[in-house]
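Researcher: Let's do a round of design. I'm pasting the structure tokens now; please hold your answer until I've finished.
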């Protein structure tokens, strides 16, 4: 199966743009690419169901997991187990890009936003 980026309809989530490659598919995991513009932030949240695997592909982001802050750059990885609170922000002047994998697959009703 192939999914072409130009066939995806981006989801605007606040200032973030999410390209969900697995939307509408019956997969055990989900995959998305997230564009995080300068000064954008993902509000604190946690998942009742899914572990989250974030890989920074471009730019720099500050991740906060369970109150512990870390600055990540391209090539760095952040794992967020389900049940743990997290947020991230782009404090730089350049857009950052993340790859996000959820296991099991993403369901909005299982996400809790603080």
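Researcher: That's everything. Go ahead.
Model: Designed sequence:
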């Amino acid at each position: 199966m192939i999914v072409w980026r130009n066939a995806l309809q981006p989801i605007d989530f606040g200032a973030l743009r999410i390209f969900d490659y697995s939307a509408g598919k019956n997969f055990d995991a989900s995959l998305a690419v997230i564009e995080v513009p300068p000064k954008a932030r993902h509000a604190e949240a946690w998942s009742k169901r899914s572990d989250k695997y974030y890989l920074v592909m471009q730019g720099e982001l500050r991740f906060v997991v369970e109150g512990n802050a870390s600055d990540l750059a391209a090539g760095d990885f952040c794992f967020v187990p389900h049940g743990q609170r997290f947020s991230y922000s782009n404090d730089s002047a350049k857009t950052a890009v993340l790859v996000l994998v959820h296991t099991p697959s993403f369901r909005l009703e299982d996400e809790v936003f603080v």
